[in-house]
Backbone:
């Protein structure tokens, strides 16, 4: 039988208001002996507060929504862990929604979270041209934090990275190794993060005096299969010496394509990814990549959202984390190769 506040009050010989105050850690006006008697009864009887009843009074559910586009991509579980760790520490539960990068599923989850009366939402949007449903959510007054993927709207709060610098550093490193024909496998270019990484790629080429060649650029989908298909085309038709993939998942696809074509990394083709998820360290050879502080981004997003939920002032609406080039074994210096060809 479910134990209620009334049961506790009757056994403790106090009012239900007094029991409620003790349970909610509001001890003002409650004696130490009474407080101890109530807490002992709560423990002895296994009383559990009614979350629904409490939410009707406080207008809070102590829950937040987390919407991500692809749970299979190891980047997003790391983000989710950062969010959940902070949320749990602050007394919030997390409702995880995976959209499969589908805008229609995204809209359904927004409706579901609104029905659940979550206190706020952390959002990584699908790769779509339209963000009207996200803007409507933001304008509705629900606290929203955008994470990883930006949208064009001035009144947003978000946690992102310096994508331009990451794209520039990856390309510039390949150029420093003597590569001139550098293939580029982008994510969907309608997303800000892909657009910024692409601009970094082009900037590095321009500074090095290397002509931009659109035939060396293939727009893909952040998935292994997309990376493999794009890499196959670049390796068979364009004879590139290096490939910069806009995430580690597509870089894994490059590995797959190279193996099927009988090419060795890095002897025949150099590869750089973007993310530095844990699997990248156990590939053979280990993947050179641009590191994002993935866990920290998730944790910071949760901190920002909970600050907003509590009605506290946020100093910075937009936080950008720095990237770091992690050099491992999938890239090779080909300067001598070019010099030998030139001498011939």
Residues:
């Amino acid at each position: 039988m479910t134990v209620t506040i009334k049961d506790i009050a009757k056994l403790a010989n106090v009012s239900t208001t007094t029991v409620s105050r003790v349970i909610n850690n509001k001890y003002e006006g409650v004696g130490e002996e009474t407080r101890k008697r109530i807490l002992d009864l709560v423990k002895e009887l296994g009383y559990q507060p009614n979350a629904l009843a409490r939410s009707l009074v406080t207008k809070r559910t102590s829950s937040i929504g987390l919407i991500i586009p692809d749970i299979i991509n190891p980047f997003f579980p790391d983000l989710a862990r950062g969010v959940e760790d902070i949320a749990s520490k602050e007394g919030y539960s997390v409702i995880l929604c995976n959209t499969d990068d589908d805008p229609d599923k995204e809209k359904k989850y927004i409706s579901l979270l609104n029905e659940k009366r979550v206190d706020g939402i952390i959002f990584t949007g699908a790769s779509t041209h339209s963000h009207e449903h996200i803007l409507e959510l933001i304008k509705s007054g629900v606290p929203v934090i955008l994470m990883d993927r930006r949208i064009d709207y001035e009144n947003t709060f978000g946690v992102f990275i310096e994508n331009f610098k990451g794209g520039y550093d990856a390309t510039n490193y390949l150029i420093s190794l003597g590569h001139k024909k550098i293939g580029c496998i982008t994510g969907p270019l309608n997303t800000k993060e892909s657009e910024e990484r692409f601009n970094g790629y082009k900037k590095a080429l321009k500074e090095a005096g290397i002509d931009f060649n659109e035939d060396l650029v293939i727009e893909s989908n952040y998935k292994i299969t997309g990376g493999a298909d794009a890499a196959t085309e670049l390796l068979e038709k364009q004879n590139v010496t290096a490939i910069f993939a806009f995430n580690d998942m597509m870089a894994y696809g490059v590995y797959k394509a190279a193996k099927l074509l009988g090419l060795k990394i890095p002897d025949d083709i150099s590869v750089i990814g973007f993310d530095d998820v844990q699997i990248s360290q156990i590939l053979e050879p280990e993947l050179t990549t641009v590191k994002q502080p993935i866990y920290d981004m998730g944790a910071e997003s949760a901190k920002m959202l909970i600050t907003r939920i509590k009605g506290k002032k946020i100093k910075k609406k937009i936080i950008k984390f720095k990237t770091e080039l992690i050099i491992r074994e999938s890239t090779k210096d080909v300067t001598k190769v070019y010099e030998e060809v030139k001498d011939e």
Summary: The chain has a mean pLDDT of 89. The longest helix spans residues 192-207.
